[in-house]
Write a structure and sequence with these properties.
The protein is built from five helices and five strands; from the N terminus they run βαβαβαβαβα. It has helices at 12-24, 35-41, 61-70, 86-94, 106-117; strands spanning 4-8, 28-32, 47-53, 77-81, 98-101.
Length: 124
């Protein structure tokens, strides 16, 4: 069963906002303060989708995507960005991620998360 939305953001306030959005969509949320902590601590979490901030201290959001692509991760990824350049956008798209621009509409983001991850929400 894949029903947990994982959030990777080094901003504690943004992690809390994203956690509330995910839970409002009827899904479980688990947050991480860095790409490294996600890779180290996620264990066997059944991932429904992943929300990653582009700008992280340490490993960047795009680098995390590249690392996950090496392991053939098979879940949808949203890359959240306040500002991104053409290279970041091209890399994210090549890796199969969807870019979400800040500021984002909370209801629209909840709907998008539910659309890709909500299939398992009834299993909770």
């Amino acid at each position: 069963m894949r029903n947990t939305v994982c959030i990777v953001d080094d901003d504690v306030d943004m992690r809390e906002v994203l956690t509330r959005i995910v839970r409002s969509a009827g899904l479980a949320a688990r947050s991480f303060d860095s790409a490294e902590s996600f890779l180290r601590e996620r264990g066997d979490v059944p991932i429904a989708c992943l929300l990653i901030d582009v700008e992280l201290g340490g490993m960047s959001g795009v680098r995390l995507l590249e690392t996950l692509a090496d392991g053939e991760a098979d879940f949808p990824v949203f890359l959240i960005s306040g500002a991104h350049d053409a290279v970041t956008l091209a890399s994210a798209k090549r890796l199969g991620a969807t870019i979400i621009d800040k500021p984002f509409d909370v209801r629209q983001l909840a709907q998008r998360i539910r659309a890709v991850a909500g299939k398992d929400a009834t299993a909770q």
